[in-house]
Amino acid sequence: MADNEPTPAEEAAARAKEKAEQDALPYKWTQTIGDLDVTISVPGNIKGRDVVVDIKKDSISAGIKGQEPILKGTLPHAIRPDESTWTLTTAPDGSKVIEVHLDKVNKMEWWAHVVTGAPKIDVTKIVPENSKLSDLDGETRSMVEKMMYDQRQKEMGLPTSDEQKKMDILKKFQEQHPEMDFSKAKIN
User: Fold this and answer.
1) What is the pTM of this model?
2) Stronger pLDDT, 8 or 184, i.e. the higher one
3) Residue 186, domain member (yes or no)
4) Alpha-carbon gap, residue 155 to 157, rounded angstroms
5) 145: domain range?
6) Within 13 Å, how many C-alpha atoms sit on residue 79's CB side?
7) Does pLDDT of 131 surpass 60?
8) How many structural domains comprise the chain?
9) Looking at the structure, do residues 76 and 154 belong to the same domain, yes or no?
10) Strand 71-74 and strand 59-64: pairing?
11) pLDDT by residue (tens digit) across 144-182?
C-alpha cells in the first residue's frame, strides 16, 4: 500500500495505544466542539477547601493542597477563565471527583490533549454527536432551521420558504393589479 493509509490492524493498534495512554492519565476528559470537561478522582475524605484549582487563559493546575498537582500544564489552545469552573462532587459510592469545566475560546476546534505534555488523541477520529441547534450562533442556526424547514416542506410536497415568498409576492401583485390576467402565467 503506497498511499500510507494504515491497515485496519495498524489502525486498531493505534486506537488501542491511544486508549491505553488516555486510561493511564490520572484524570479522564471529554470534549464537545465548544468546551472540555476533566474529572479527577480524589480520596473520599477530601473537602472543597483541600482542593487547589488554578485556571488561566492558557494553563491549568488542579489537585490537592500540599501535594503535587494531579493535572498541571500549558493548554494547547486558549480558554475563557471567567466561563470555566470547577466543583468537587461525591459519587454514589462515596468517592470524590474534582470536575473541571473549560470553556474553549475557539468553538470550532477539537483538542488533541488537555495539556501540551500529555499524550495526544487523533482528533480526525472524533465523531461529533449531533450538535444541538441551540449551540449554533444566530445566523448559522436560522440557516440550518430554514434548510430543515425546506426539507420537510419538500418531503410533504409543499412549497419551500423561497417558493412561498415568490407566491406571496405574486399574490400581492395580483391584488394590486386586478386588471391583469395571470391565469396563463408560469411561475419559475
Assistant:
1) 0.65
2) 8
3) no
4) 5
5) 139-176
6) 28
7) no
8) 2
9) no
10) antiparallel
11) 777 777 877 877 888 888 888 888 888 888 888 877 776
Q: Where are the beta strands (DSSP E) in the chain?
A: 28-31, 35-42, 51-55, 59-64, 71-74, 85-90, 96-103
User: Helices 138-155 and 161-176, interaxial angle, to 10°?
Assistant: 80
> What dihedral do alpha carbons 148, 149, 152, 156 form, nearest 10°?
-160
How many alpha carbons lie under 13 Å from residue 31 in its C-beta half-sphere?
Answer: 21
3-state secondary structure 131-184: CCHHHCCHHHHHHHHHHHHHHHHHHCCCCCHHHHHHHHHHHHHHHHCCCCCCCC
Q: Which residues of 78-107 are buried (b: 16+ CB within 10 A; e: fewer)?
A: ebebeebebebeeeeeeebbbebebbbeee
Query: Comparing C-alpha atoms, which of 9, 11, 24, 16 is closest to residue 119?
Result: 24
Compute the half-sphere exposure of residue 86: CA atoms within 13 Å on the CB side of its CA: 21
Choose among 117, 158, 123: nearest CA to 36.
Answer: 123
- pLDDT > 90: percent of the chain: 49
